[in-house]
């Protein structure tokens, strides 16, 4: 559910291979990748339809346990029904909006909340990483807790935060419910960023820090000119992980705090209507998938903008 | 700082931070009077843990069981598909974008429809979520591990005229094993988190996640926090078990360094 | 005339897990203004440590290190020396020009002045056409030239070099030696040059300081007698005087009796 592809406590730096092969070859390679990727998607849809066609209606049972799902249209709607349903109105009421529009609106709201959460979590994570890099005792005191907390289900406390919404009031300003969601999202985004950024800030070669020492450079200069640029290859995977965590945190927190305007709410309420309209339940899932892809795409764009900082280490 | 004091400080500092955190928390609640809706005191949570220990154990058993089932299935699937992808480039090309998407997408969003696919009283929907979440890191790490053999090593094996199986035994497996283990370690945490969170999306009651949300919904906040604490302990326990397993296997198996 | 470096009775002991290591024991050495001095010896003889003491990257356990009459620390803060290491140590995300400009940037030199100085330095090391390249697009020799340009950026009167050509192939190395000789002649800077190549030390230096390990100390100092006005070129490499000095340094390194009386500072 998160992008902890590798060990989240040791983000692997991505070294950008400098492409110097001919343009034509990269172009062919790209086309090939796109076609294969499309085939992969088709393969997933094919698996779905294939199982639906040959699988027993009551699903595959081992003893009392149903290990593979039922294949009725109610349980597993056809892929084309899911897509078609997107373009039909939300409800049977005359002036209802098309389903895709409602899902899109809710997804945009969720994306906004996730972005706030990601920004806050990233900022706090970066600041803490700088502190831990500068003050060794802070690193010793905090880092074990941060690493440990990455392995436990922190998100479990999301339902408890529901109570905050109605109880906090500061000088007439009421705590809006979306803020509870954003707090949870930022909380989840914070941890990978703090760990990744610290690894990155500590990554410069001794030769580089010593060079700055011979320049009698201040700690701030060393941070700006050497440590932060050197941290970029470590930071990008951490930011991507943070973005995925923020999206997951947002969706889960929307559900568990009962927030009404986001895509999380649609996930639950449309699933409740699945007995009458099974294809509808898939629309917010597509929305959630879109959220994750947009977040990852944004970080990938960030990575492309900073490609100079990702050149392989020169000797 | 001498090496001895440094070692002592490295142990003392996190302990101190932990104790300090607990003290500030208790102080916030009992002296400054932060309402228990916002934050029950550690002592209250501790009391709730004691009172509900039986129910908590049963709930942890259910959630843990789902996580374990998902982990086993997801890990097996991950290793098998990674082996296929390592063997056939076109298969890797097809699978790579799908896996990359699954990695960034909130998989728990599937929980409501999976519940209706399996039926309202089935735990298998959650197991499927846990399996999908566990699959990703195992697949990615295994594939990376399978690609660790260097051309130099492969050339060496050719000069020995080693068979495909011999090369696999002597070269590919030892260099890939640490990566598989790392993948499983990451997958364990994800499986527990996913199994737990999937319970927030409806389905049969009984696990830790559903107790957290029911307790919170009925304003029994201290009890909700007690279940949260149990969930954290479950996650920690699962993680420690895999770390131990990893150590054990690495001890038995003469493997290369994971780096 | 003020000496560039004055080292007196310096000892350096490192505390490690397995006990104390005496890297340097009672070392004294003086480097005059504009003088080229090489430190040579087997690994573990403390030649790099000695240079790092001058650079104020390490502090002596006993004794004093003076650079242009100041403490090493003051000299570092005042930027009285430039430095180059065995690895070029270029920042991979910066272009050649930006790498050369790094020390200038840190010391608040204005943009325009920075640009003209960088152009001048790139010209000096023959890399004008590569100013916009990144380090990963350069050969090892070119990277090391950038590092030398960077070390010269602030016109230091002292250059500290720790095996700067150690990672280069023999042909590139000889070319770089000639270039370094030309550049130091142009700038008139004093050089402390750490190396483990005997011909390199003799070719470049006014004096070669031979060191021995456990504990690190100076065993002999050999004056090459190759004047500053002698061209450092292929002819010099082939001359009998050059070979004679190479033999002399080799003998000193291998502990044979030293013929030259040029023993000082012990």
TrEMBL record, chain B:
GO terms for biological process: transmembrane transport. Pfam families: BPD_transp_1 (PF00528). Keywords: Cell membrane, Membrane, Transmembrane, Transmembrane helix, Transport. It is found in: Cell membrane. The keyword Transmembrane helix applies. GO terms for cellular component: plasma membrane. This is ABC transporter permease subunit. It is a multi-pass membrane protein. Belongs to the binding-protein-dependent transport system permease family. Coiled coil: none annotated. Its main location: membrane. Residues 56-245 form the ABC transmembrane type-1 domain. The chain crosses the membrane at residues 12-34, 67-88, 95-118, 124-143, 179-201, 224-245. InterPro entries: MetI-like (IPR000515), MetI-like_sf (IPR035906).
UniProtKB/TrEMBL annotation, chain C:
Pfam families: ABC_tran (PF00005). PROSITE patterns: ABC_TRANSPORTER_1, ABC_TRANSPORTER_2. Keywords: ATP-binding, Nucleotide-binding, Transport. Transmembrane segments: none annotated. CDD domains: ABC_NrtD_SsuB_transporters. It is an enzyme of class 7 (translocase). Residues 5-238 form the ABC transporter domain. PANTHER family: ABC TRANSPORTER ATP-BINDING PROTEIN (PTHR42788:SF20), TAURINE IMPORT ATP-BINDING PROTEIN-RELATED (PTHR42788). This is ABC-type quaternary amine transporter.
């Amino acid at each position: 559910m998160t992008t902890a592809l590798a060990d989240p406590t040791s983000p692997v730096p991505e070294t950008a291979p400098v492409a110097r092969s001919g343009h034509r070859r990269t172009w062919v390679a790209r086309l090939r990748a796109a076609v294969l990727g499309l085939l992969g998607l088709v393969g997933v849809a094919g698996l779905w339809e294939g199982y639906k066609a040959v699988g027993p209606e009551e699903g595959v049972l081992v003893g009392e346990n149903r290990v593979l799902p039922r294949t009725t249209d109610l349980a597993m709607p056809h892929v084309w029904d899911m897509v078609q349903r997107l373009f039909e109105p939300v409800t049977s009421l005359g002036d209802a909006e098309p389903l895709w529009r409602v899902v899109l609106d809710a997804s945009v709201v969720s994306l906004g909340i996730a972005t706030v959460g990601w920004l806050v979590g990233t900022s706090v994570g970066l600041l803490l990483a700088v502190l831990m890099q500068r003050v060794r005792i802070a690193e010793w005191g905090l880092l074990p807790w941060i690493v440990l907390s990455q392995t436990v289900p922190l998100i479990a406390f999301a339902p408890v935060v529901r109570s905050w919404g109605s109880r906090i009031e500061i000088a007439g300003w009421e705590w809006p419910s979306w803020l509870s969601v954003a707090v949870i999202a930022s909380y989840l985004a914070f941890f990978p960023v703090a760990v990744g950024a610290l690894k990155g800030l500590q990554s410069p070669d001794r030769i580089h820090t010593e060079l700055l020492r011979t320049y009698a450079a201040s700690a701030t200069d060393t941070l700006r000119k050497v440590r932060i640029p050197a941290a970029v290859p470590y930071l990008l995977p951490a930011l991507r992980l943070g973005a995925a965590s923020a999206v997951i945190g947002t969706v889960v927190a929307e559900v568990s705090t009962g927030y009404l305007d986001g895509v999380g709410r649609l996930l639950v309420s449309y699933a409740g209507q699945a007995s009458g309209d099974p294809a509808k339940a898939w629309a917010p899932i597509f929305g959630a998938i879109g959220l994750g892809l947009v977040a990852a795409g944004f970080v990938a764009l960030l990575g492309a903008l900073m490609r100079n900082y990702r050149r392989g280490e020169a000797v | 700082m001498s090496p001895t004091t440094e070692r002592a400080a490295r142990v003392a500092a996190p302990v101190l931070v932990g104790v300090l955190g607990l003290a500030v928390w208790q102080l916030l609640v009992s002296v400054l009077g932060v309402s228990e809706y916002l934050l029950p005191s550690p002592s209250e949570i501790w009391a709730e843990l004691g009172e509900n220990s039986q129910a908590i154990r049963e709930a942890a058993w259910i959630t843990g069981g789902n996580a374990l089932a998902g982990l086993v299935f997801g890990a097996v699937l991950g290793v098998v598909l990674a082996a296929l992808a390592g063997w056939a480039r076109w298969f890797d090309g097809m699978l790579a974008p799908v896996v990359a998407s699954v990695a960034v997408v909130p998989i728990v969003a599937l929980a409501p429809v999976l519940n209706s696919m399996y039926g309202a009283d089935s735990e298998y929907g959650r197991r499927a979520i846990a399996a999908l979440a566990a699959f990703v890191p195992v697949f990615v790490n295994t594939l990376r591990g399978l690609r660790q053999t260097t051309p130099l090593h492969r050339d060496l094996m050719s000069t020995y005229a080693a068979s495909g199986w011999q090369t696999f035994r002597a070269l590919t497996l030892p260099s890939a094993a640490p990566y598989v283990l790392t993948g499983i370690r990451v997958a364990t945490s994800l499986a527990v988190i996913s199994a737990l969170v999937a319970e927030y999306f409806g389905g049969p009651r009984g696990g830790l996640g559903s107790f957290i949300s029911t307790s919170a919904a009925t304003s029994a906040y201290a009890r909700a926090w007690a279940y949260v604490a149990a969930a954290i302990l479950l996650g920690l326990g699962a993680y420690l078990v895999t770390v131990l397993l990893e150590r054990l296997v690495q001890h038995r198996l003469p493997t290369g360094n994971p780096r | 005339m003020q000496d560039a470096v004055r080292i007196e009775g310096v000892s350096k002991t490192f505390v490690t897990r397995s006990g104390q290591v005496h890297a340097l024991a009672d070392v004294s050495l003086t480097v005059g203004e504009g003088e080229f001095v090489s430190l040579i010896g087997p690994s573990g003889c403390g030649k790099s440590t000695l240079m790092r003491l001058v650079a104020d990257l390490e502090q002596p356990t006993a004794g004093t290190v003076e650079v242009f009459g100041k403490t090493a620390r003051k000299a570092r803060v005042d930027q009285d020396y430039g430095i180059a290491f065995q690895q070029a140590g270029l920042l991979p995300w910066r272009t050649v020009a930006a790498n050369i400009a790094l020390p200038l940037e840190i010391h608040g030199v204005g943009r325009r002045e920075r640009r003209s100085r960088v152009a001048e330095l790139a010209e000096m090391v023959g890399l004008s056409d590569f100013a916009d390249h990144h380090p990963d697009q350069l050969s090892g020799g070119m990277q090391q030239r950038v590092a030398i340009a960077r070390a010269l950026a602030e016109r230091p009167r002292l250059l500290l070099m720790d095996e700067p050509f150690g990672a280069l192939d023999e042909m590139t190395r000889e070319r770089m030696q000639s270039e370094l000789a030309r550049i130091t002649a142009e700038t008139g800077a004093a050089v402390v040059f750490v190396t483990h190549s005997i011909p390199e030390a003799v070719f470049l230096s006014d004096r070669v300081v031979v060191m021995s390990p456990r504990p690190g100390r100076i065993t002999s100092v050999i004056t090459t007698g190759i004047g500053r006005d002698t061209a450092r070129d292929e002819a010099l490499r082939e001359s009998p005087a050059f070979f004679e000095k190479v033999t002399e340094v080799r003998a000193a390194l291998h502990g044979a009796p030293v013929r030259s009386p040029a023993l000082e500072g012990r």
